Amino acid sequence: MAAAGDGGESPCRDALREAFGDSSGSDSDAPAVVSPGAGRGHWRWEAVAGVRGLWLCAAFLSGDEQARLLNAIQREGWFVDANNQAMRFGDLPSWAVELSALIREAICVGDASVGLDAEATNEDEDACPLPSDLLWREPFFDQMIANRYKPGEGICAHVDLMRFDDGIAIVSLESACVMHFSQAEPTRGSVSSDTLKQGDGESTKVPVLLNPGSLVLMSGDARYLWKHEIDRKPGRQLWDGRELEQHRRTSVTLRKLLPSTD
User: What GO biological process terms are annotated to this protein in UniProt (predicted)?
Assistant: First the structure.
Protein backbone atom coordinates (compact mmCIF):
# COMPACT_ATOMS: atom_id res chain seq x y z
CA MET A 1 0.00 0.00 0.00
CA ALA A 2 1.19 3.48 -0.78
CA ALA A 3 1.63 5.84 2.15
CA ALA A 4 -0.22 9.11 1.86
CA GLY A 5 2.96 10.97 2.65
CA ASP A 6 4.68 9.69 -0.50
CA GLY A 7 5.11 12.68 -2.75
CA GLY A 8 4.11 15.26 -0.13
CA GLU A 9 1.85 15.81 2.85
CA SER A 10 -1.81 16.82 2.45
CA PRO A 11 -2.76 20.37 3.48
CA CYS A 12 -4.99 18.86 6.17
CA ARG A 13 -2.10 16.95 7.71
CA ASP A 14 0.28 19.93 7.44
CA ALA A 15 -2.18 22.14 9.32
CA LEU A 16 -2.72 19.55 12.02
CA ARG A 17 0.99 19.00 12.55
CA GLU A 18 1.45 22.77 12.90
CA ALA A 19 -1.38 23.03 15.42
CA PHE A 20 -0.60 20.00 17.58
CA GLY A 21 3.13 19.64 17.08
CA ASP A 22 5.26 16.77 15.89
CA SER A 23 7.63 16.19 18.78
CA SER A 24 7.22 13.35 21.24
CA GLY A 25 9.79 14.81 23.60
CA SER A 26 7.45 17.03 25.59
CA ASP A 27 5.52 15.52 28.46
CA SER A 28 3.55 18.61 29.41
CA ASP A 29 -0.15 17.95 29.93
CA ALA A 30 0.65 14.23 29.89
CA PRO A 31 -2.46 12.14 30.54
CA ALA A 32 -2.40 9.51 33.25
CA VAL A 33 -4.03 6.72 31.25
CA VAL A 34 -2.29 6.93 27.90
CA SER A 35 0.99 8.59 27.05
CA PRO A 36 1.15 11.22 24.29
CA GLY A 37 3.53 10.18 21.54
CA ALA A 38 3.85 6.61 22.82
CA GLY A 39 2.31 5.22 19.67
CA ARG A 40 3.95 7.45 17.11
CA GLY A 41 6.30 4.70 16.01
CA HIS A 42 3.45 2.33 15.15
CA TRP A 43 0.49 4.56 14.25
CA ARG A 44 -0.36 3.58 10.70
CA TRP A 45 -3.75 4.25 9.17
CA GLU A 46 -5.35 2.15 6.49
CA ALA A 47 -8.38 3.18 4.43
CA VAL A 48 -10.59 0.08 4.28
CA ALA A 49 -11.11 -0.79 0.62
CA GLY A 50 -14.71 -0.59 -0.54
CA VAL A 51 -16.08 1.58 2.28
CA ARG A 52 -15.42 5.26 1.81
CA GLY A 53 -14.78 7.06 5.09
CA LEU A 54 -13.74 3.92 7.03
CA TRP A 55 -10.23 3.97 8.51
CA LEU A 56 -8.41 1.48 10.73
CA CYS A 57 -5.41 2.04 12.99
CA ALA A 58 -4.59 -1.55 13.92
CA ALA A 59 -1.96 -0.69 16.55
CA PHE A 60 -3.43 2.41 18.15
CA LEU A 61 -2.69 1.45 21.78
CA SER A 62 0.30 -0.49 23.04
CA GLY A 63 -0.16 -3.40 25.43
CA ASP A 64 0.67 -1.22 28.44
CA GLU A 65 -1.73 1.49 27.31
CA GLN A 66 -4.50 -1.08 26.88
CA ALA A 67 -3.91 -2.35 30.41
CA ARG A 68 -4.03 1.17 31.88
CA LEU A 69 -7.20 1.97 29.95
CA LEU A 70 -8.88 -1.24 31.12
CA ASN A 71 -7.90 -0.47 34.71
CA ALA A 72 -9.40 3.02 34.42
CA ILE A 73 -12.65 1.57 33.08
CA GLN A 74 -12.69 -1.07 35.81
CA ARG A 75 -12.29 1.59 38.50
CA GLU A 76 -15.53 3.21 37.33
CA GLY A 77 -17.41 0.21 38.77
CA TRP A 78 -19.84 0.06 35.86
CA PHE A 79 -19.79 -3.63 35.02
CA VAL A 80 -21.46 -5.14 38.10
CA ASP A 81 -24.69 -7.08 38.64
CA ALA A 82 -24.84 -8.24 35.02
CA ASN A 83 -24.62 -4.67 33.70
CA ASN A 84 -22.51 -4.63 30.53
CA GLN A 85 -22.93 -1.06 29.27
CA ALA A 86 -22.30 2.46 30.51
CA MET A 87 -23.13 5.75 28.76
CA ARG A 88 -21.90 9.23 29.52
CA PHE A 89 -23.06 12.52 27.99
CA GLY A 90 -21.43 15.94 28.21
CA ASP A 91 -18.61 15.82 30.74
CA LEU A 92 -16.69 12.60 30.11
CA PRO A 93 -14.40 10.79 32.58
CA SER A 94 -10.85 12.16 32.52
CA TRP A 95 -9.50 9.00 30.90
CA ALA A 96 -12.05 9.34 28.06
CA VAL A 97 -10.97 12.95 27.52
CA GLU A 98 -7.36 11.75 27.40
CA LEU A 99 -8.30 8.99 24.99
CA SER A 100 -10.03 11.53 22.75
CA ALA A 101 -6.89 13.67 22.72
CA LEU A 102 -4.77 10.66 21.77
CA ILE A 103 -7.14 9.81 18.91
CA ARG A 104 -6.77 13.33 17.58
CA GLU A 105 -2.99 13.12 17.91
CA ALA A 106 -2.90 9.78 16.07
CA ILE A 107 -4.88 11.32 13.22
CA CYS A 108 -2.57 14.32 13.13
CA VAL A 109 0.80 12.59 13.10
CA GLY A 110 0.13 8.98 12.12
CA ASP A 111 1.03 7.70 8.66
CA ALA A 112 -1.97 7.20 6.38
CA SER A 113 -2.20 4.72 3.53
CA VAL A 114 -4.95 4.09 1.03
CA GLY A 115 -6.33 0.61 0.37
CA LEU A 116 -5.35 -0.81 -3.01
CA ASP A 117 -8.95 -0.74 -4.23
CA ALA A 118 -9.98 2.51 -2.55
CA GLU A 119 -11.00 5.33 -4.88
CA ALA A 120 -10.43 8.93 -3.88
CA THR A 121 -12.32 11.81 -5.44
CA ASN A 122 -10.53 14.28 -3.19
CA GLU A 123 -7.00 13.07 -2.58
CA ASP A 124 -6.11 15.68 0.03
CA GLU A 125 -9.08 14.94 2.29
CA ASP A 126 -8.82 11.17 1.81
CA ALA A 127 -5.21 11.32 3.02
CA CYS A 128 -6.57 12.25 6.46
CA PRO A 129 -8.65 9.71 8.43
CA LEU A 130 -11.16 12.42 9.41
CA PRO A 131 -12.22 15.56 7.52
CA SER A 132 -10.61 18.68 8.97
CA ASP A 133 -13.92 20.21 10.08
CA LEU A 134 -14.52 17.22 12.36
CA LEU A 135 -10.99 17.33 13.74
CA TRP A 136 -11.24 21.01 14.65
CA ARG A 137 -14.63 20.84 16.39
CA GLU A 138 -14.79 21.38 20.13
CA PRO A 139 -15.36 19.27 22.00
CA PHE A 140 -13.99 16.53 19.79
CA PHE A 141 -16.33 14.03 21.48
CA ASP A 142 -18.92 14.55 24.21
CA GLN A 143 -20.67 11.17 24.34
CA MET A 144 -19.20 7.84 25.29
CA ILE A 145 -20.38 4.24 25.47
CA ALA A 146 -18.34 1.55 27.22
CA ASN A 147 -19.44 -2.02 26.53
CA ARG A 148 -18.29 -5.35 27.88
CA TYR A 149 -19.19 -8.46 25.89
CA LYS A 150 -19.02 -12.08 26.94
CA PRO A 151 -17.86 -14.66 24.37
CA GLY A 152 -20.67 -15.08 21.83
CA GLU A 153 -22.13 -11.61 22.47
CA GLY A 154 -21.94 -9.04 19.69
CA ILE A 155 -23.90 -6.23 18.07
CA CYS A 156 -26.65 -6.36 15.45
CA ALA A 157 -26.24 -4.58 12.13
CA HIS A 158 -27.10 -0.91 12.56
CA VAL A 159 -26.34 2.69 11.64
CA ASP A 160 -25.77 4.93 14.66
CA LEU A 161 -28.63 7.28 15.56
CA MET A 162 -28.90 10.55 13.67
CA ARG A 163 -28.77 12.46 16.96
CA PHE A 164 -25.00 12.00 16.74
CA ASP A 165 -22.73 14.01 14.47
CA ASP A 166 -20.43 12.66 11.80
CA GLY A 167 -17.15 11.14 12.94
CA ILE A 168 -17.35 8.12 15.28
CA ALA A 169 -14.44 6.34 16.96
CA ILE A 170 -14.38 2.78 18.34
CA VAL A 171 -11.50 1.44 20.44
CA SER A 172 -11.38 -2.35 20.91
CA LEU A 173 -9.83 -4.08 23.93
CA GLU A 174 -9.22 -7.66 25.09
CA SER A 175 -10.63 -10.11 22.51
CA ALA A 176 -10.02 -9.78 18.78
CA CYS A 177 -13.09 -9.86 16.56
CA VAL A 178 -14.27 -9.22 13.02
CA MET A 179 -16.66 -6.34 12.39
CA HIS A 180 -18.68 -6.53 9.18
CA PHE A 181 -19.94 -3.58 7.16
CA SER A 182 -22.89 -3.81 4.77
CA GLN A 183 -24.54 -1.07 2.74
CA ALA A 184 -27.64 0.51 4.20
CA GLU A 185 -28.30 2.53 1.04
CA PRO A 186 -26.63 2.74 -2.39
CA THR A 187 -23.70 5.12 -2.55
CA ARG A 188 -21.62 6.25 -5.48
CA GLY A 189 -17.92 5.49 -5.52
CA SER A 190 -17.85 3.11 -2.54
CA VAL A 191 -18.09 -0.24 -4.30
CA SER A 192 -18.90 -1.37 -7.82
CA SER A 193 -22.27 -2.88 -8.63
CA ASP A 194 -20.52 -6.16 -9.46
CA THR A 195 -19.18 -6.53 -5.92
CA LEU A 196 -22.47 -5.69 -4.22
CA LYS A 197 -24.12 -8.99 -5.10
CA GLN A 198 -23.42 -12.47 -3.86
CA GLY A 199 -24.93 -15.68 -5.18
CA ASP A 200 -27.93 -15.34 -2.88
CA GLY A 201 -28.50 -11.72 -3.91
CA GLU A 202 -27.49 -10.21 -0.57
CA SER A 203 -25.12 -7.30 -0.27
CA THR A 204 -21.49 -8.16 0.22
CA LYS A 205 -20.22 -7.70 3.77
CA VAL A 206 -16.84 -6.01 4.13
CA PRO A 207 -14.91 -7.59 7.03
CA VAL A 208 -12.54 -5.60 9.26
CA LEU A 209 -10.30 -7.28 11.83
CA LEU A 210 -10.34 -5.45 15.18
CA ASN A 211 -7.33 -6.51 17.21
CA PRO A 212 -7.00 -5.52 20.86
CA GLY A 213 -5.78 -1.94 20.92
CA SER A 214 -7.15 -1.10 17.47
CA LEU A 215 -9.08 2.05 16.54
CA VAL A 216 -11.76 2.39 13.87
CA LEU A 217 -12.98 5.75 12.56
CA MET A 218 -16.22 6.14 10.61
CA SER A 219 -17.18 9.30 8.75
CA GLY A 220 -19.17 10.22 5.67
CA ASP A 221 -20.45 7.15 3.83
CA ALA A 222 -19.10 4.74 6.46
CA ARG A 223 -21.01 6.55 9.20
CA TYR A 224 -24.31 7.21 7.38
CA LEU A 225 -24.65 4.70 4.53
CA TRP A 226 -23.07 1.55 5.92
CA LYS A 227 -24.32 -0.65 8.76
CA HIS A 228 -21.79 -2.28 11.07
CA GLU A 229 -22.17 -5.45 13.11
CA ILE A 230 -20.23 -8.02 15.13
CA ASP A 231 -21.57 -11.57 15.08
CA ARG A 232 -19.65 -13.62 17.64
CA LYS A 233 -21.76 -16.76 17.43
CA PRO A 234 -19.82 -20.01 16.83
CA GLY A 235 -18.56 -20.25 13.28
CA ARG A 236 -19.12 -16.58 12.44
CA GLN A 237 -15.80 -15.06 13.51
CA LEU A 238 -13.59 -16.10 10.61
CA TRP A 239 -10.40 -14.42 9.44
CA ASP A 240 -7.90 -15.75 6.89
CA GLY A 241 -9.68 -19.08 6.83
CA ARG A 242 -9.59 -19.72 10.56
CA GLU A 243 -12.02 -19.08 13.38
CA LEU A 244 -10.93 -16.52 15.95
CA GLU A 245 -10.97 -17.68 19.56
CA GLN A 246 -13.43 -15.51 21.44
CA HIS A 247 -12.86 -14.10 24.91
CA ARG A 248 -14.35 -11.21 26.86
CA ARG A 249 -14.28 -8.04 24.78
CA THR A 250 -14.43 -4.43 25.92
CA SER A 251 -15.05 -1.48 23.61
CA VAL A 252 -15.17 2.28 23.99
CA THR A 253 -17.20 4.28 21.44
CA LEU A 254 -16.81 8.04 21.25
CA ARG A 255 -19.28 10.33 19.46
CA LYS A 256 -20.37 13.95 19.27
CA LEU A 257 -23.95 14.96 20.00
CA LEU A 258 -25.66 17.25 17.52
CA PRO A 259 -27.01 20.53 18.93
CA SER A 260 -30.57 20.24 20.25
CA THR A 261 -33.29 21.58 17.95
CA ASP A 262 -35.55 22.43 20.90
Answer: DNA damage response; fatty acid metabolic process
Name the domain count of the chain.
1
- What digits encode the pLDDT tens for the residues 113-160? 655 344 443 444 457 899 999 998 999 999 999 999 999 999 999 999
| Residues 149-161 as b or e (16 or more Cβ within 10 Å = b) | beeeebeeeeebe
Tell me the residue range of the domain where 98 lies. Answer: 43-115+124-185+204-257
Q: Is residue 26 part of a domain?
A: no
CA 165 distance to own-chain centroid: 15
Contact 148, 252 (CB under 8 A): no
* DSSP per-residue letters across 79-90: S-TT--EEEEES
CATH, residue 78 = 2.60.120.590
Nearest to 48 by CA among 225, 180, 161: 180
Residue 6 resides in a domain: no
Q: What is the pLDDT of residues 70-125, one digit of tens each?
A: 999 999 999 988 899 999 999 999 999 999 999 999 999 999 865 534 444 344 44
DSSP string, 90-158: SS--HHHHHHHHHHHHHHHHSEEEE-TT---SSHHHHTSSS-HHHHS-SSS--EEEEEEE-TT--EEEE
Question: pTM for the complete prediction?
Answer: 0.80
In this structure, are strands 238-239 and 226-230 parallel, antiparallel, or unpaired?
A: unpaired
Q: What are phi and psi of 2, to 5 degrees?
A: -90, 130
